[in-house]
Amino acid sequence: MGLWHYTVGQRLRSILDTQEILLATKGIPQGEKPVVWLTTSPHWESTANKARQGPNGQPIIMSKGESAAYGEGLYRIEVLPEAAP
Hints:
Blueprint: E1 3-8, H1 9-18, E2 51-53, E3 59-61, H2 64-71, E4 74-79
Antiparallel strand pairs: 1-4, 2-3
């Protein structure tokens, strides 16, 4: 069974350079542990869509198409199961 990490092109460059997927830390409430988001789904996960700041300062979740345009494409990285405890 494959594990997948979904990301955008803006983040892919760093992942390829460092060979590391960094922990998600933005917007994580205090006391909650940061994580790397993985899925067993071979299809784009809507939870991977990016957010932008709305006029009132609240985040607005973008659609898949908006995330692709804003993020310079959509990408899926396979992660070995033993790398994800």
